[in-house]
Amino acid sequence: MSYEPCYEQGDLVRWYEYYADGDIVRDGGIGIVLEPPAMLVGAIRSINYRVKVYCMKKHYARWFNVSEIDLIKEGTYKPDKNIKKEI
Q1: What is the mean pLDDT of the chain?
Q2: Confidence category of residue 4, pLDDT binned at 50, 70, 90
Q3: Distance separating alpha carbons of residues 37 and 47, to the nearest angstrom
Q4: For residue 87, what pLDDT is reported?
Q5: 6: number of CA atoms within 13 Å, CB side?
Q6: C-alpha to C-alpha distance for 58 and 61, rounded to whole angstroms
Q7: What is the pLDDT of residues 42-54, one digit of tens each?
Q8: Could you tell me which residues come within 8 angstroms of residue 43 by beta carbon, excluding any fewer than 6 positions away?
Q9: Which of 13, 21, 53, 64 is spaced 20 to 30 Å from 38 by Cα?
Q10: What's the pTM?
């Protein structure tokens, strides 16, 4: 099964964590895409796309396969690069 990476930074997504067998959902929540999909090439010539998502429920960011997230809304948050950070 192939998944097209259609996520961009700032998209609102629903994420899922699965048990080891991959069929039963262990946990889930809502998050914001921090980094767009990155291609990860496996040892058996398989290609997986990973997306870094900030999980609002857990208050930290982690990587998910594209198959483990669903798009809720595009472009929810776009960071302003012109804002100067205070030191």
Answers
A1: 80
A2: low
A3: 12
A4: 44
A5: 11
A6: 8
A7: 655 556 788 899 9
A8: none
A9: 21
A10: 0.72
**Two structure tokens written together for 26:** 């262990």
Domain positions in the chain are 12-73
Q: What is the C-alpha to C-alpha distance for residues 64 and 60, in angstroms, rounded to an integer?
A: 13
Q: Tokens for 31, please give them.
A: 């998050």
Q: What's at 19, amino acid-wise?
A: Y
DSSP string, the chain: --------TT-EEEEEEE-TTSSSEEEEEEEEEEEEEEEEE-TTS-EEEEEEEEETTTTEEEEEEGGGEEEEETTS----TTPPPP-
Which amino acid, residue 10?
A: G
The encoded tokens of residue 30 equal: 């809502």
Dihedral pair phi/psi, residue 67, rounded to 5°: -75, -10
pLDDT tens readout for residues 55-86: 998 899 999 988 899 999 888 666 666 655 54
